[in-house]
Design goal:
- With about 325 residues, the chain is mostly beta strands.
- The chain contains seven helices and 22 strands.
Length: about 325
């Protein structure tokens, strides 16, 4: 009989980025070690070379891919296992943009399969911290053609056709594959995405790395992936309700919700044929006796059909397929 009957926690994988800072440590208590610019904390990952390890309970020390091979549908659900096999389908991150990220796009499944034999990358951003003037870039301000795209890049005017959105804590954005986007300075987000690490940089502000070189751009690859008619900024508006999971972004690759926890609440997953990921985005909670702090992530196995959540006043993201 499986012992997969408790919430799983994983060791974060920290990434140095040219645009990263210190808030992953200062605000989310991540152990960044000697990283001078900690830009990302990969919370749950099955990307090659970046495999998450369980840190609690009887499965501590086991990697997520090994656990999936061992527990199969008990971990991710029958339909998910039939679709994804031993490939865990989601990647969860925290991102600290102390400086602006490149303006970029991700390919869809078709392009990613043909070019990289990989999955595409649609994602959701949840803003967990933002300064007063923080912005995000999402979508074009008007439809453009391929010819306009090249001309704007050639004369350094690409920013003229981008949606810039002022943001605050709690804002949520859907970034489907093909949408031009960028996280701007002094913004920290939780990111939910397909398991993929494919990014095409369109523009990088002529920024230079520690060796004095500009980072590689992928202008032609991006052109194949871009939706030049996409003028939606992707912001999802919602209102919190105490102890109720308010459904937010839903797409073929994942579904998300936000729960305001006050006191004790029970989440019933008996009708889901899926694992559930919980992300602490404000305050601390206890889930079936396991602590989920602000800035932490846990995985509820598909075999665990209900959980009790306790908090004085907290918010969690809920993700499943």
């Amino acid at each position: 009989m499986s012992n997969l009957n408790y919430p799983l926690k994983f060791k974060p994988i920290l990434k140095e980025k040219i645009w990263g800072g210190h808030r992953l440590s200062d605000m989310l208590n991540k152990e960044i070690g000697s990283l001078p610019n900690a830009g990302e904390s990969w919370e749950i990952s099955a990307v090659d070379g970046n495999i998450s390890m369980v840190t609690n309970g009887c499965f501590a020390g086991i990697s997520i891919d090994e656990l999936l091979r061992q527990e199969r549908e008990k971990l991710i659900g029958q339909k998910n296992y039939e679709m994804f096999g031993n490939n865990f389908p989601l990647l969860i991150k925290f991102i600290d943009a102390a400086d602006k990220l490149s303006i970029q796009v991700h390919p869809n499944n078709e392009v990613a399969k043909r070019r990289h034999n990989a999955s595409g990358k649609s994602e959701v951003w949840y803003v967990i911290n933002a300064d007063d003037n923080s912005e995000l870039i999402s979508g074009f301000s008007k439809p453009i053609s391929y010819e306009e795209y090249k001309e704007l890049l050639d004369r350094g005017a690409f920013a003229e056709v981008l949606n810039r959105v002022r943001v605050q804590r709690g804002d949520m954005f859907f970034i489907p594959a093909g949408r031009i986007h960028g996280i701007c300075k002094d913004t920290m987000v939780a990111e939910i995405q397909q398991t993929s690490d494919i990014t095409y940089r369109v523009y990088d502000y002529k920024r230079k790395d520690s060796n004095g070189k500009e980072r590689q751009l992928h202008v032609e690859e991006a052109a194949e992936a871009l939706n030049f008619n996409d003028t939606d900024n992707g912001k999802f508006n919602y209102s919190l309700k105490p102890n109720e999971c308010v459904k937010t972004v839903s797409c073929p690759y994942f579904k998300t919700g936000v729960t305001l926890v006050r006191g004790e609440t029970k989440r019933d997953y008996s009708e889901l044929d899926s694992f559930v990921i919980l992300i602490g985005v404000r305050g601390n909670t206890i889930v079936n006796g396991v602590e989920l702090k602000y800035g932490e992530t846990m995985l509820i196995p598909a075999s665990l059909k209900a959980v009790d959540i306790i908090a004085t006043d907290a918010e969690i993201l809920e993700v499943y397929i």
